[in-house]
Amino acid sequence: MDASLSFATEIAIHAGKQLLSYFKPNGSYTSVKEDYSVVTEADLVADQFIAEAIQKEYPEDALISEELQPTIGEVKSPVWVVDPLDGTTNFSLGMPIWGVSIARVQQGWPVLAVIYFPVFDELFTAQLSSGAYLNGERIHTRPPIPGQPNSFFSCCTRTHQQYEVSIRYKTRIFGSACYTLCAVARGMAVIGFEATPKIWDISAGWLLLKEAEGMVEIVTGEQPFPLQAHKDYRLQSFPILSAANSDLLSIARQQIKPKSISS
User: Fold this and answer.
1) Percentage of the chain with pLDDT > 70?
2) Is the per-residue pLDDT at 34 higher than 70?
3) How far separated are the first and last CA of the chain, in Å rounded?
4) Are 186 and 152 in contact (CB under 8 A)?
5) Rounded Cα–Cα distance for residues 254 and 198 (Å)
6) Which CATH architecture has domain 152-258?
């Protein structure tokens, strides 16, 4: 295993175990940030641990982190993009779908991805041009099987509030942008859509899905990559559409449309 992937895997698992020590099936206390998203003490502890580990091991690298460092300077060195706890609302309510997402970005694009869901003990990893893996086993996207009615579409809670959706597949809402991307990458979902994810929600999943031979694109607005210097990534969302193949992506593009604003 590449040294940087081994390092990222180690700190993701360690941070995940830290988070498990805070996780309570009956829920936990949260506070609300300015953008109305929630944050827990566990977010901050895991973020601090990951940031310190990266700084020690890769002192020349930069960091974008949801809680600690939402901007970077000039993009001259590799950048680590970290979401210490994706699915914070799930975590705070005692739901098990939440995890740690770590990506390493070089020349503006993800080249390494580690996503760990501690409750399920699911570890997703990917490196550029090296494939995508779940707990060491190669994974691939999977289009619907003819005659099999159980394919599904994963989306976020804001999808039906902000978009007209006519996709015919069964709908599942996980509450974690990372898990949506992983669900498509592993062949569990055939299409995924997240309306308002941030850069730390999608960087690792973006690479994982591409390495699983899937398709991913931004529906509207700026592209997430290459990363931009001096940009406050707290202020930018990236509506992201993912699919098992190009045909499904094309279909989904036609069947998910922004709602018109009434005058």
Assistant:
1) 92
2) no
3) 56
4) no
5) 23
6) 3-Layer(aba) Sandwich (3.40)
Tally of CB atoms within 10 A around 218: 16
- Give residue-wise pLDDT tens across range 73-92: 777 789 999 999 999 889 98
Q: Which residues are CB-contacts of 190 (< 8 A; sequence separation ≥ 6)?
A: 141, 142, 143, 144, 151, 152, 153, 169, 184, 243, 244, 248
In this prediction, residues 15-42 reach a mean pLDDT of: 70
Q: What are phi and psi of 116, to 5 degrees?
A: -125, 125
CA 254 from centre of chain: 23
Whole-prediction pTM:
0.92
Angle between helices 177-185 and 199-211 (to 10 degrees): 0
| Among the listed residues 74, 92, 19, the one whose alpha carbon sits nearest the alpha carbon of residue 49 | 19
| pLDDT above 60 (res 39) | no
Architecture per CATH, domain 3-139, reads as 2-Layer Sandwich (3.30)
What are the distances in angstroms from CA 220 to CA 76, 191, 223, 229? 28, 17, 8, 21
pLDDT at position 164 over 70: yes
Sequence-ordered list of residues with C-beta below 8 angstroms from that of 84, at least 6 positions apart, any chain: 15, 19, 43, 46, 47, 49, 50, 65, 66, 67, 100
Domain ranges of the chain: 3-139, 152-258
Tell me if the bond preceding 25 is cis, omega within 30° of 0.
no
Rounded to whole angstroms, the Cα distance separating 75 from 181 reads: 26
